Fold this sequence. Notes:
Elements: H1 2-41, H2 56-82, H3 86-112, H4 137-145, H5 148-176, H6 180-206
Amino acid sequence: MKRTTVRGAVLGAIATATLLLTAACGGDDMAGMGHGSGATTGAAPSAPASGAASNNADVQFAQMMIVHHQQALEMAAMAETRASDAELKKIATDIKNAQEPEIQKMTGWLTAWGQPTAAAGGHNMPGMTGMPGEMSEEDMAKLEAAKGVEFDREFARMMIAHHNGAIEMARTEESQGGNAEAKALATEIATAQTAEVATLQKILDRL
């Protein structure tokens, strides 16, 4: 009887130890699973759209639109101080307020994409001459020489042509671009500048 009791106690102890060992291993496994889940939750966020995949159309759009915007800013700066029409002055200010941040945004994209940015001061990059709506040096000299109402007319005419060129470039990006953020900006540019073209045409008609 005593031997049976001892044997039972030993078997019971072995069973208890086995259960404890199994529980410990299970706890380690669950802890590992919990760590894995936590690691997934705490993973670094996805890269911003500016760093997402881009194609040649995106790069060309950003590079060319920067240069295009820079020329528009030169024209707007003239109009802010020399236009005699108050509505034209307001449009010039609106152009400046919209396009300066857009230049900064597109410059940031090109940096993220590892691509060269357009040269400062509105100079074209190699192979970028003859952009849609781009004013020639003669056009810019003519605008600078104009005064009074004649300046207003020249500014309105040139900016309409300039905007139409930007709209054409934006539509190309919409259809050929691969970067979602660049395509979204192209849509914004096309929408805003289409509205400004309509306003500029109304001003030109009454001047």
